[in-house]
Design brief:
With about 550 residues, the protein is an alpha/beta fold. Helix content is about 35%, strand content about 25%. It contains 17 helices and 21 strands. Helix 6 links the parallel strand 13 and strand 14. It is elongated and about 110 Å long. About 50% of the residues are buried.
């Protein structure tokens, strides 16, 4: 018996012309040799008999074979899967996604047998990998890109950036700026960003709306700021309230974001550290960005705007250690000017460092000794900084620059190899944010925050053909050294597709562009007013 058929049953059988005709079962074979065509039929009215496959028969007694595969939300298959958990890449693999998490990673042919996706994607000539983590940025500053270039950091801050922010910054400015930043980041394969900016509640709104993941800074600085607050106590209280409001959010986490030692007193830094400990969130701060910041702090030179606000005659890193804050919760951004002892102390404390190479080079702030930090065992992540000092939010470009710059600074061509650079741009950023067990790599049980990078253009030909760089063309080295963000074709966060074939699905591009043009007019107007108020302009008048 085959699927309840018996000899003598009448049914319909498919003939050579593709049509079905009345027939009768004359024999049923159980032989292993007959598994492909186990039923012999005779066509009614004709003498001809033939062996038939079950799919060439129609009968109420014939059941469709049961599909016992596990039903899942999506199966995404690619020529290469780069997990970042281990070196190299897996050829012709699938990532199985269900309920926003990674359920399985296995060869494509095995995935087809084991899982039935409600959605399926086949990414030929592409690598599927974890999304980038932009470990330090000021999202809304995209509105200030190109406003003031080719000047030093302090002049850039004091003469243009801070005055403009005082004039323009409110919830609408921040929310719409964040939406533009998020659009740019999604298109560049960023699935998580760590933000430090005013009106963080507006950034939360943009994150919730667009589907990206973010760590939001509970910002604090020593002086009053426009309509946001009167000082650090109020800022930290607002931040704590915001963190409480979004404590159930699956895509929002928080950091205590102190601007810098030269804008935050020891009292404020201590309070920020206490809040970080209370909420079990990272403490995020610009640190040792400039040489003057370190030298003036050691000398106690209060005439320098870069001297830390502490009365201690020591470097800002040494002061944080004195305050008990050079620990595993610290995210130290920049760290360009460090002594060997400070590197050792940072490693012993378990702090993370965020390297922002483009911003440091553009502002001539200095060089981060990334190779030395990694050798000491420090977790080093990558950030873009704000778009007004970069001038993009392109983590892929930062990753290549970080790898190449590390070789030049250390005079060692093997420093920061491609696999390390890729880990800095993904898993290391997640670890710095306290999210390493949740995102940053492709692993069973982690959130499905993934991107696809295409190898379909001449800049990456010959295309990858080996998961091992020693045996051929490796997708990891192609991504780090040869690829650009325009090759990112698809983006998922928590299993939800935010970009498909370069089209962002959660943001209206025309609306964001209209907003950017509107704010460009407002910023230009404010700049003209600022320039007319300078002493030089007054003298000319």
């Amino acid at each position: 018996m085959r699927n309840n058929l018996t000899v003598g049953d009448q049914l319909k059988a498919k003939y050579d012309d593709g049509r079905f005709y009345a027939a009768k079962v004359t024999q049923i074979s159980t032989s292993a040799k007959r598994t492909k065509a186990p039923v012999k039929v005779s066509f009614l009215g004709y003498e001809e008999e033939r062996w038939m496959a079950l799919d060439g028969l129609k009968s109420k007694k014939l059941k469709a074979p049961e599909d016992d595969r596990k039903v899942v939300d999506e199966v995404v298959s690619a020529s290469w899967v780069i997990t970042v958990e281990t070196d190299g890449a897996l050829p012709n693999h699938s990532v199985v996604v269900d309920a926003g998490k990674i359920l399985d990673i296995l060869p494509i042919d095995e995935a087809e047998k084991k899982y039935k996706g409600k959605k399926t994607s086949m990414l030929k000539d592409a690598a599927l990998m974890p999304g980038f983590v932009n470990a330090h940025t000021h999202s809304t500053m995209v509105f200030l890109r190109g406003v003031t270039d080719d000047i030093a950091l302090r002049e850039w801050l004091e003469k243009t950036v801070w005055p403009l922010e005082f004039k323009l910054c409110d919830e609408k400015f921040v929310r719409e700026g964040a939406e533009l930043a998020i659009l740019e980041m999604i298109q560049g394969g960023v699935t998580t960003f760590n933000d430090m900016y005013w009106f963080p509640e507006a950034v939360c709104q943009a994150v919730e709306k667009t589907g990206i993941r973010a760590a939001i800074g509970m910002i604090a600085i020593e002086f009053p700021f426009g309509g946001y607050g009167s000082g650090p106590d109020e800022y930290l209280a607002k931040g704590e309230k915001l963190a409480e409001q979004y404590k159930e959010s699956e895509r929002l986490s928080f950091t205590v974001s102190l601007h810098a030692p030269y804008t935050c007193s020891d009292a404020t830094i201590t309070k920020g550290g206490a809040l970080s400990e209370k909420l079990k969130v990272p403490l995020h701060i610009h640190l040792h960005e400039m040489q003057e910041e370190v030298e003036a702090s050691k000398a106690g030179n209060k005439e320098s705007q870069s001297c830390h606000m502490s009365s201690e005659l020591c470097s800002p890193v040494e002061n944080l250690k004195r305050l008990g804050l050079l620990n595993e919760r610290l995210i130290a951004v920049h760290m360009n000017w460090l002594t060997p002892q400070e590197i050792k102390s940072t490693a012993e404390g378990g702090a993370s460092v965020v390297h922002c190479p483009s911003s440091n080079l553009k502002l001539a702030s200095g060089f981060c000794e990334v190779a030395s930090l990694i050798e000491a065992g420090i977790n080093v992540a990558i950030g873009t900084d704000g778009a007004s000092s970069n001038n993009t939010l392109d983590v892929m470009a930062e990753m290549k620059l970080a790898a190449i710059l590390a070789k030049g600074v250390s005079k060692n061509a093997v420093a920061v190899p491609a696999q390390t650079a890729l880990r800095m741009a993904t898993l290391n950023g997640a670890k710095a944010l306290g999210l390493g067990d949740k995102i940053g790599s492709l692993a069973v049980g982690k959130e499905a925050d993934m991107i696809a990078v295409q190898f379909n253009g001449p800049a990456v030909w010959p295309a990858p053909n080996s998961g091992n760089a020693l045996e051929g063309f490796d997708p990891v080295t192609h991504i780090v050294y040869s690829s650009t963000r325009d090759q990112v074709s698809d983006v998922w966060v928590q299993g939800k597709r935010l970009m498909k074939n370069r089209k962002v699905t959660t943001i209206s591009v025309p609306k964001v562009r209209k907003s950017a043009n509107k704010w460009a007019s407002e910023i230009s107007k404010a700049l003209k007013e600022m320039r007319s108020e300078t002493p030089a302009a007054a003298a000319e008048a």
